C-alpha cells in the first residue's frame, strides 16, 4: 500500500510550486483532484512552451507537475461552483491553494470556511511572502523571489554581475517544502485527531535554500563575492575547466585533495613553487594558479580527466548537456524518470521526472497518467459526488 492511498487532496493550485507539492502526493497514491477554471485551466498549460504544446494546453512544465491528478473544471466565482467545492471537501483530507492572500476568503474557500464543513482538514496556503506581514500582498514569481531574497547576489561572476539561477529553483523547492509541511500536519493529525493550517511562503523557502550563506552573513557579516564557476575554497585546483573537447568540474576541498589533483595532472612541480606550495599560498595566488592549471587541463579530453581524477579519489564530473544527463543509466536504475502514459494529445508515452526518492516497498508510482484536458474528469468526479446525469449536463452547459 502506497503511503497516501485513500487520501483525498483538493488542489486549487496552479503554475509550479503548488502543483509540485500536490504531485508528491498523487505519485504516492493519493486521489488529487485539481480544480481548474473552465476552458483556460491552469495558466502553466500555455506557458514556457512552443505553439504546438500551447495549442494542446499541455506545456512540458505543466505535464511534469500534474501527473496522476484528475481535473475538475468549475467556476469558483459561481454559487454552483462553491456548492460543488463544499461537497468535494466533505470527505477530503487535504486542501491546498496558492491564490494571492485574501482571494480564497473572497471565494468562500479559505481555511475558516472549509474548517466549518470539515473540522479535521489539513489546509495549506502557498504564497510568495506569506499570508500576513508587510509584503504579503506583493505578487511573486520564481525570479522575483530570487531577486528579493538575495539569491541573485550569490550567483554570477564579477564580469556578469548578479544573475538569476537558470531553473525554477524557488518554485520547485517551495513545492517540496509544502509537501513536507502537509505531511507533518497529517502526522500530527494521526496523533491528535486535529487538522491544521499551514502557511508556506516562497520567500521563506528561499531563505532555507541559501541557509549556509545566510548564516555566514548573519553570524559573521560576510558577503560572499561573485565567483562564477570558481570554487569557494579559492584553490586553483577546483572549478570548471575547459578540456580538449568540453568542460570538466573538479572539486578539491582539503589540502590532500589539492595535492592529489596536482600530482595526477602532472603538475606536481607546483608544490615546490612558493606561490603554490601551501593551501594558503594557493589562495593568495589564485588567479596565477588558475591560469596555469587551466592551460594544463586543455591538453586532455574530459573523459580522460574524469578517469585520471577518479583513480586518485578527487571528485570530478563532466559538465554535461541535458541530453547526456537524461540518458544516464543511473536514472533508469533509480526509476526517478517515470513513464507518463495515456496522456491526452500524445500518441507515445512521455518521459517525465517524478518523485525524487525510492523505497524498498510501495514507493512512488513509476507509471503515471492524467495531465489531460482541462476538466477531463469533471463528469466522473461530479457523478462520484452524487450529481445526476441531468445535473451534470446542466453544470457543464453553464461553464
Automatic annotation (TrEMBL):
It comes from Sneathiella sedimenti. InterPro entries: CoA-transferase_III_domain (IPR050483), CoA-Trfase_fam_III (IPR003673), CoA-Trfase_III_dom3_sf (IPR044855), CoA-Trfase_III_dom_1_sf (IPR023606). It comes from the Bacteria. It holds the Pfam family CoA_transf_3. Keywords: Transferase. Gene3D superfamilies: Crotonobetainyl-coa:carnitine coa-transferase, domain 1, formyl-coa transferase, domain 3. GO terms for molecular function: transferase activity. This is CoA transferase.
